[in-house]
Amino acid sequence: MSGKTNRTALVGVVLCLCVVVCLTITDRTLEVGMAAHGRQTTVASVFESYPIRTISPNRNTARNNLSSMRTAQAEQTVKNIQVLKGLPESQLFLVMNFVATSLGVHCNFCHVQQGKDPNTGVTKWVWESDDKPEKRTARGMMQMVLAIKTNDQVDFRGSEVTCYTCHRGQRKPVGIPAMPLARSGHEGPDDTALTERTTLPSVEQIFIKYVEAVGGIAATGTRTLVLKGKREASQNRNWPNEITLAAPDKFLLVATMPQATVRQIVNGDKGWIVNGTNVRNLTAATAVEAGRSYAELFNVIKVKPSQNMRLIGTLKVGDRDAYMVENVTDTKTERFYFDSQTGLLLRKMTLRKTMLMSFPEQVDFEDYRDVDGVKVPFTIRYSAIDTYDSWTRTFTEIKRNAVLSDSLFAAPNASPR
Fold first, then answer.
1. How far apart are CA 156 and CA 161, in angstroms?
2. In terms of domains, do 116 and 68 share one?
3. pLDDT given at position 149
C-alpha cells in the first residue's frame, strides 16, 4: 500500500470519530460539579470571568486550590482513567463539553445513571462504569486521535483533528455529499472570473490603524475607566455589575446579587474577594492573571503587537470583513480580528492547547461608542466551550478619566480566609 493510500486511510479512520470522551469522575467530584449546574449560585461564582475559572469554588472542589489544579493529573484524583493519563484535572469538564458538543449528545450517551438522590434531587452517576459500549468505543477513538497527533504525518494545513472535524454536531459523520447535487465541479465558475487578490496591510499598519480608531493619543492617555451595566449568564445568573480600572494594574469588580454585594479587588500582584466581613486572599499569580484578563477585556486598548504575530488574511465576522492576526505560543493560539474598514477590534479567539484538542474561547466586542474622545464597546460577549462559563456584559454608562480614590483598591479591613 502506498504512502498516499496510507494517509487516505488514516483520514478515513477519522470519519469514525464517534463517541463522547470517556472520562470518569469520582462521586465526590460529581456531587460538586452537578451542584454547579443547578440553580444555586454561590457568592464567589460571580467571578468566573474570562479566562479565569479558579475563583469559582462550586465548579469543582479542586478549583479552590489554584496550584493543585495546575499540577494534579486526572488519573491521580479520579477513577478509571485509561487513555487520557497526564491530562490536567482542571480540563476534565472542558474535554467533556467539547466532545459532547461535537457529537450533539449529553453525558448519558456514554455514562451510566442510577436515578436521583431522594434528598437532593441530584442525578446519581456511576462515572467509572464501563457498562455502555459507547464508552468503551470512545477509548479507541481517543487513542486514534492521539496517534494522529503523535505521528503528525498528514498535512492538515494547520487545522488539528478533533471530534468536530468529522462530526459537526452529529452522532454519525456524513461521509458523502447530499444528493442531488446543485452542480458538479466542472460546472463551477471559470477561474478567470475570480476576483483578484488585494494587497494586505502589514501587522504594524493594522495596529497603527487600531490605535487611531479607538482614539489615538486619547486612548493611550486613558488613566481610569468606570463601566456600569449588567452581566447575563445561563441559569438566571444575571445581576448589575460595576467595573473600575486604574492604570496600570488596579481593578475593582462589584457584583450586586440578590444574596449580597460582592467585590473583587486587584492591585498589582495582590487581590481579594470580599463578601461582607469575609475576605479571600488571591495568590499573586491569580491576581496578576485576573488583572491581565480585565485589561484585555475592558481597557480602551485591548491588545498590543508582538514580534510573533503574523497576518493570516481576511475573514468575515458577522457581515464585516476583518483582518485576522495570529499569535502562536507553546500553550495557545490567539487570533485577533480587526475590522478592515474601521480598524476596530471585533473579536479575539483563543485556542488553548491540550493533549487531545484545543479549547476555544471567544470574546466579541460590539456596539462601539464614543466616550470622551475614545471608542469603547458597550457590549462584550465571552463564549466558552462550557456554556456555564459564558457571559454577556452590556454597559449603560462608561466614564473615562474620572478621579478615583486609592482606597477603592486597598486591602479590605476584614479577617482573611
1. 8
2. yes
3. 76
